[in-house]
Design a protein that fits this description.
This protein is of the alpha+beta class. It is 48% helix and 15% strand. The chain has an eight-stranded antiparallel beta barrel. The protein starts with 6 loop residues before the first helix and ends with a helix. 27% of the residues are buried.
Length: 315
């Protein structure tokens, strides 16, 4: 048989191989397309799902919650938000090459009420298909207990595959990356704690379908822009405190020397100084018991000195 007589059979096998390869590639492409379509549908579904608005002192952040993938986590988060548990918590850890983490609910400026404490409970670990990617929300927990997550969570700033399978991803950032960038620019101490408190002023559940314009989201505000205000308040506090102390000294000295006018003026200065300190740092006393105690003692002492001066003047 001539060599060319076998060509049709060879072409047949070649054609069969081409068709088989095309079928495999076609089915693979279809599977990829279907996977992408499913992913797009899920992504769109999540956009109309539960969302939470975090109003911080640096601006507003909106996050989407994955109720289907982490139902227990999302249920807990929504309950905490509706009870105002996240209000006056703060950003306590910032690592620009890793994450931004919120404080525990017990670390609020305003203490938790009994009703708020009642909704705090450990969340069971939920493993799902979501990976730890940039923008993911992942629940914080104790390293020795998978089921110890409660209220603190992190926003990932980079991909973190080493967390996959050990922590629950329950949402992602939708809007507010400019705010997160500003938070990362804030000065931090050696433990990655912001030097100036970055507070979550209010957390609310976003109405379904609400747009960015309807929510009236606030743009990012530099943390450094408020540092001068805090510095001025601190300087004013030292000045007022010094005047109050000098007023008390003058009043005591005038009482011993029987200088009534100087004693009266000193007493008035001391009393008004303590009141001014209460006005300046009244909000701080809600979370700093030592400061509240010092101001309370100062007020009592000023009252006592004034009463003694009046007794001495009446003799």
């Amino acid at each position: 048989m001539a060599p060319g007589a076998d060509l049709p059979r060879r072409h047949g096998w070649l054609l069969y191989g081409v068709l088989l390869l095309a079928a495999v590639l076609g089915s693979t492409g279809l599977a990829v397309s279907q996977g992408a379509l499913v992913g797009a549908v899920r992504h769109g579904a999540q956009s109309t799902a539960d969302r939470v608005l975090l109003r911080t002192t640096c601006g507003d952040i909106v996050v989407v919650l994955y109720a289907d993938a982490a139902p227990a986590h999302v249920e807990q988060i929504l309950q905490l938000v509706r009870h105002g548990v996240y209000d006056t918590t703060h950003i306590y850890r910032v690592e620009p090459t890793f994450l931004v983490q919120t404080s525990d609910a017990n670390d609020r400026r305003i203490p938790l009420s009994a009703a708020q404490r009642s909704v705090l409970r450990p969340i069971p670990f939920e493993r799902n298909e979501f990976l730890h990617r940039r923008g993911s929300l992942t629940m914080a927990r104790r390293l020795d207990d998978l089921n110890s997550a409660e209220s603190s969570f992190s926003i990932l700033l980079v991909d973190a595959p080493h967390l996959d399978g050990d922590f629950t991803v329950f949402g992602r950032v939708e809007w507010g990356w400019d705010v997160l960038d500003e938070i990362c620019r804030a000065p931090r101490d050696e433990n990655n704690r912001p030097e100036e408190r970055i507070e979550i002023e209010k957390a609310t559940v976003v109405p379904p379908g609400a747009t960015r314009e309807e929510l009236e989201l606030r743009d990012a505000t530099p943390v450094q822009g408020r540092g001068s205000d805090i510095g001025a308040r601190s300087a004013l506090g030292w000045l007022v405190g010094t005047l109050a102390l000098l007023g008390g000294i003058v009043m005591v000295a005038a009482r011993r020397g029987a200088h009534r006018l100087a004693g009266a003026l000193g007493g008035i200065i001391a009393f008004l100084g303590v009141l001014s300190l209460l006005v300046l740092y009244g909000a701080e006393t809600q979370r700093q018991s030592l400061l509240a105690l010092v101001l309370f003692i100062g007020l009592l002492v000023s009252f006592k000195l004034l009463s003694r001066f009046e007794e001495a003047r009446g003799r």
